[in-house]
Design brief:
It is found in: Cell envelope. The protein is built from 5 helices and 23 strands. The chain is an alpha+beta fold. The strands form 5 sheets. Strands 2-17-21-20-19-18 form a 6-stranded antiparallel β-sheet, with no helix packed on it.
């Protein structure tokens, strides 16, 4: 008797197939759910502060370093030889023009003047005698009592006597000048240094004459500083380099002990050449110095400006980033996307940075949060005004947050 096993085998195969399908289904559902669960969400917009580029009429300033120089500096030297009799000033004293500084022993020069005056009197007497003798000889010649030769001799004697009198006059003048030179006075008003030669010392004239003291004028004073070539070219383009324009270039200075640039002056002159090694040109400015604070050799912070105010685009300096040797800002468009924009900058004016190229009026730029975004990032802008007060406030806020973080 034959038995069939086919139905039994079919049921087993079906059971296995159903099991495999169930396992595959469960695995598929599991993988699908896991994939849906781990899918990345869209990035959130980065919060930043933005402000619109503004335009103002400004005077652009450039900063330099300079040194104070006296307009007049005199080395006081003796014009005659002699012994110092007196010193008539205190070290560092302010003196007026014509004030007596030193006295050289005048007695030898008084004697020389007396001798010269006596010699002049003798020359005058000889001239008078020569005139008398010439007149007498002329009358005698008319009576043919003397020869023509004698008349010629008398005329020659008169000319010689006249020349001797002129020489005597010159000797008297020289003696008087030498006597005047025994009193050494200040040629200009200013401040004297210390006395290098004291009472009782012998001084001489000539190339080896010693410096008795130095004298510098006090007010006004020069401030000399070096200007780079691009700045000089800008001034030249504005017509302020020529003689008619230099006085229109405003200059301000501040000393190391002063805040800002409280002292006002103007450019006196530009040098006639640019230094090949440094690429700069020397500029000389003039400042009043009524209080006498500005001392020759003193360091000064110098700020110069274009005398012609002009419109300029201004932004907060914190909005500027550095990309190697370039400067850039992030412009935020209507779609709130950050766009990289290279810019050319000018100086700081009224707390804001001048933009020479790269931006347009009213364009929105990131002024706070620049370090948190990259080009083409979506941002959530908070709009503020672009002015110096906002810039200062933001700076102060950032500083305060940094200080708070440091304390915590």
């Amino acid at each position: 008797m034959q038995t069939s096993t086919t139905p039994r085998f079919s049921r087993s195969a079906i059971a296995i197939a159903v099991g495999v399908l169930l396992v595959i289904g469960v695995a598929t559902v599991s993988l699908t759910g896991h994939a849906e669960k781990s899918a990345p969400a869209a990035p959130a917009a980065t919060p930043v502060t933005v402000a619109s580029v503004i335009e103002r009429s400004v005077t652009e300033w450039d900063d330099f370093s300079g040194r104070v120089e006296a307009i007049e500096r005199v080395e006081i030297r003796p014009r005659i030889s002699g012994t110092i009799d007196a010193v008539h000033f205190q070290d560092g004293q302010l003196v007026k023009k014509g004030a007596l500084l030193f006295t050289i022993d005048p007695r030898p020069y008084k004697a020389e003047l007396a001798r010269a005056e006596a010699a002049r009197a003798g020359a005058q007497a000889r001239l008078t005698l020569s005139k008398t003798e010439l007149d007498r000889t002329r009358r005698l010649l008319e009576d043919r009592a003397v020869a023509q030769r004698e008349l010629d001799q008398r005329e020659n004697a008169l000319h010689e006597a006249d020349a001797n009198l002129k020489a005597a006059d010159a000797a008297v003048l020289t003696a008087r000048l030498n006597l005047q030179y025994t009193e050494i006075t200040a040629p200009v008003s200013g401040r004297v240094s210390r006395a290098e030669i004291t009472v009782g010392n012998l001084v001489a004239t000539g190339p080896t004459a010693p410096t008795l003291t130095t004298l510098v004028s006090v007010s006004p004073v020069y401030v000399n500083f070096e200007v780079d070539e691009p700045t000089y070219i800008r001034y030249a383009g504005n017509g302020t380099v020529g003689n008619s324009g230099v006085n229109r270039v405003p200059v301000s200075i501040g000393l190391t002990s002063e805040e800002g640039y409280p002292r006002q002056g103007h450019v006196k002159s530009f040098d006639n050449r640019i230094d090949n090694s440094s690429g700069t040109i020397r500029v000389r400015a003039v400042f009043a110095n009524e209080d006498g604070t500005l001392t020759p050799g003193m360091y000064a912070r110098v700020r110069t400006g274009d005398s012609n105010a002009k419109n300029a685009l201004l932004i907060d300096d914190k909005a500027v980033g550095t990309d190697q040797d370039k400067k850039f800002v992030m412009v935020v468009g209507a779609d709130n996307k950050a766009v990289y924009r290279p810019v050319t900058l000018g100086p700081m004016v009224e707390g804001l940075r001048v933009v020479r190229s790269g931006l347009k009026l009213d364009e929105r730029i990131v002024v706070n949060g620049l370090q948190r975004i990259r080009p083409n990032d979506t941002v959530a802008p908070e709009v503020v005004k672009m002015d110096a007060r906002v810039a200062s406030a933001n700076t102060g806020k950032s500083a305060g947050q940094a200080a708070s973080s440091a304390v915590n």
